[in-house]
Amino acid sequence: MARFLAVYTMQPEAVTRFRAMPKADQDAVDAVGLEQWKEWERRHAAAFLEPGGMVGKTLRVGKSGTAPATNTICGYVVVEADTIEDAARIFEDHPHIKTFPGEGIDIMPFVT
């Protein structure tokens, strides 16, 4: 089986809109979404090689030094599947895109 990196993406504006909602509305989405996420993890537990997690603000190291940066990455998980299409199917009903304001989930094979 092959290994795949799945990266959860979310536009910064979507986070801002979500955080601008009344706290009770945010809590309601979280309550539903987190239960869905736990159920999704239970259904696909056999595919997880690295459970990953959600990530925070970015600090980029580059040729000109180190500085804060912005990107759409908000989390990751490493899964195992026969093909990239099989890996993608694992995420088709993921709460990140069904309940939370997630933009998408990028699936990439490890090549080294």
How many helices does DSSP assign? 4
Count of beta strands: 6
Which topology does CATH recognise? Alpha-Beta Plaits
End-to-end distance: 14 Å
Structural class by secondary-structure content: alpha+beta
Count of domains: 1
The first-level CATH class is given as Alpha Beta
Topology:
Elements: E1 2-9, H1 12-20, H2 23-44, E2 48-54, E3 58-62, E4 65-69, E5 73-81, H3 84-90, H4 95-98, E6 104-109
Antiparallel strand pairs: 1-5, 1-6, 2-5, 3-4
Summarize the model shown.
The protein is an alpha+beta fold and about 110 residues long. The protein has helices at about 10-20, 25-45, 85-90, 95-100; strands at about 1-10, 50-55, 60, 65-70, 75-80, 105-110. The protein has one domain: Dimeric alpha+beta barrel (Alpha-Beta Plaits, 2-Layer Sandwich).
Structural notes for this entry:
With 112 residues, the chain is α+β, with helices and mostly antiparallel strands. The chain has one domain: Alpha-Beta Plaits (2-Layer Sandwich). The protein is 38% helix and 36% strand. The strands form 2 sheets. It has a 4-stranded antiparallel β-sheet with strand order 2-5-1-6. A hairpin with a 2-residue loop joins strand 3 and strand 4. It is flat, with a radius of gyration of 15 Å.
